[in-house]
């Protein structure tokens, strides 16, 4: 494994390339973090965080909800995108304008023009929560990038190759960082190491990650 940020927190505005079409935009979401978190609070009031179950019957450690026309869900029947929140039987809350604006700007900065996201998976991590290496491949169109926004506690993101066993970069993602991967890097394995118990000034012992996608 390779650790890119050996020398502490990188400066806001820095760009760290993890591949020819994968980049971390340091602090890109910092100016709108309060607006993003207020929007998450409103979303969660309608479609609460819940722990989903894998098709194999395991409970996923990360708690999730969604906004946008489509939301990612998992249950005994499989992984899929659905327009309806199965927990409350209503459409997912609409994608807030600040999510759209940030995602389109970050995608453009990473070289992906014309990104039109229709889905945002919102994940909540607590100390000890991890996300195993996986590929994002339930979306219809792999031409569109994934835009991932980190808020709250710092996490160590794993960014691997096209095979699960390939060596993975380890890169710390801090509050306000935005990672974008698409094109030749779109199907690379990625995950999150178990979070340390290091509370964040605004969010306490939580990390919230937004992954904004074009699913349909
Ligand atoms: C994901 O892969 O869906 C989430 C990545 C992250 O939490 O940084
Ligand atoms: Fe993912």
Write up this protein:
- This protein has helices at residues 33-46, 97-109; strands at residues 2-3, 15-19, 22-25, 63-68, 71-75, 78-82, 84-85, 90-91, 119-125, 131-134, 146-152, 155-159, 169-173, 178-181, 190-192, 207-213.
- It has 216 residues and is mostly beta strands.
- It has a single domain, classed as Sandwich (Jelly Rolls), CATH 2.60.120.
- The chain has a seven-stranded antiparallel β-sheet, covered by helices on one side.
- A hairpin with a 2-residue loop joins strand 5 and strand 6 (78-82).
- The protein binds succinic acid and fe (ii) ion (FE2).
- Succinic acid is lined by residues 121, 123, 131, 148, 157, 190, 192, 209, 211.
CATH topology: Jelly Rolls
User: Which architecture does the CATH hierarchy give at level 2?
Assistant: Sandwich
State the end-to-end distance. Answer: 34 Å
Under CATH, the homologous superfamily reads Alpha-ketoglutarate-dependent dioxygenase AlkB-like
In short:
This protein has 2 helices and 16 strands. The protein is mainly β.
What topology emerges from the helices and strands here?
Blueprint: E1 2-3, E2 15-19, E3 22-25, H1 33-46, E4 63-68, E5 71-75, E6 78-82, E7 84-85, E8 90-91, H2 97-109, E9 119-125, E10 131-134, E11 146-152, E12 155-159, E13 169-173, E14 178-181, E15 190-192, E16 207-213
Parallel strand pairs: 1-13
Antiparallel strand pairs: 2-3, 3-14, 4-9, 5-6, 7-8, 9-16, 10-15, 11-14, 11-16, 12-13, 12-15
Bound molecules: succinic acid and fe (ii) ion.
Succinic acid binds next to strand 9, strand 15 and strand 16.
